[in-house]
Specification:
The complex is a heterodimer. Helices cover about 15% and strands about 25% of the residues of chain A. Chain A is built from one helix and four strands, in the order ββαββ. In chain A, a hairpin with a 4-residue loop joins strand 1 (about 15-20) and strand 2. Chain B has a single domain (about 20-230), classed as Rossmann fold (3-Layer(aba) Sandwich). In chain B, helix 4 crosses helix 9 (about 190-205). The longest helix of chain B is centred in the C-terminal third of the chain and has 19 residues, at about 190-205. Chain B is globular, with a radius of gyration of 17 Å. Classes of the chains: A alpha+beta, B alpha/beta. Chains A and B meet through loops of A and helix 4, strand 5, strand 6 and strand 8 of B.
Chain lengths: ~80, ~250
Amino acid sequence: MKIAMAEIPMERTIKVHFFTGESKEVSVEEAKKILEEIYNDPLGGLVADGKTNEVIWQIGPDVEEIIVLEMMLGGG
Amino acid sequence: MLTRSELARYDRQIMVRGFGVEGQEKLKQARIFIAGAGGLGSAAATYLMAAGVGMIRVVDHDMVELSNLNRQVLHWDEDIGKKKVDSATEKLKRLNPSLKVEAIEEMITEANISQLVAGFDLIVDAMDNLPTRYLLNKVALEKNIPLFHGAVYGFEGRAMTIIPGETACLKCVYRGVIPGEKFPVIGVTPAVIGCIQATEAIKYIAGIGQLLANRLLIYDGLNMKFTEFRLKKDPNCEHCGQLVRGKK
C-alpha cells in the first residue's frame, strides 16, 4: 500500500555572507532588499553570488547564497 | 637596445621565461603615470623603478607627515614637512639613476587630468579618495589607457586591472562616493597591493601572463586569504557603458 505524502512547499532562502565574517539566512525577498540597499547606498558596495563569486546585480533563480562587499577607498 | 650595464642589472628578470630581453626592452620604453605618492604609490613606484620602467611621473600634492611613515616607505623621518613628490623622486632617482622620474606637485582635478596623463602608456591608481579615482577611471577610458586600481583598509586590500573597452571599469564596480575620511591601515597592506599593481603593470607592458581583468582580487591579511570575484561590464555604466572597444 502506498501512502501519499503531502508535499509542503519549502520557502526558498538565501544565505547572506558579509565579507567581515557575519552570515545569516534570509528569504528571497529579504535578499533582494539587501542587494537593492547595497546598490542604492550612496557609499556603494558589491554583491557577489556566493557559489560562483561572480558580481551580480539581481537575485536570479539559481542564486543560493550571496556575499556582500563593502566599498573601499584607502590608499594613501 | 639594452646597454651592457642594463643587461647585468636586470639579469635575473631577463632570465624569467617569457619575459627575456624583449620584456626588458619594453619596460625601458614604457611611460607610467602614478597617481599618488602614499602607501600604494610608494610600493608600486619602487618596484617599477627597480624593474627598469623607462619613465615614471608621480603626482601628489601632500606634504610628508609623521603619521605617513608606517606605510609610505619612500618617505623617511628626515622628510617630514617636505613635499611628497620631492621626497619620492629623490629616493627613486637614487634607486635607479639611469631612469627618468618626474615629480608633479598638483592636485589631480577634472581640469588638469587630461594633460597630466597625456602620452603615458598606463596609469597606476594609488589614490586615497574615490572622486579622484573616478576621474582617473574616466580619463583612462577616454584616452584608452589601462588603469591599475588598488585600495586598502586595515588588513584588507583590493586590486583590479581595467582595460578600456574590454573589461569592467571602476564605475561598473563602485557607484557611490565615500566622504574623505581618515582610514586605518597596517603598513604592509598597501605594500602588498602596490606590489600587485606593479606586477600587473609589468605583465601588461611585457604582454605576458593573465591580468586581473574582469577580476577583483581581495587580500585579507588578517586571515591570510586571497579571494577573487568575477566582474562583468555594467551595460548601464555611466563611464564605460557606451564605450566601444578601441585599440590605441
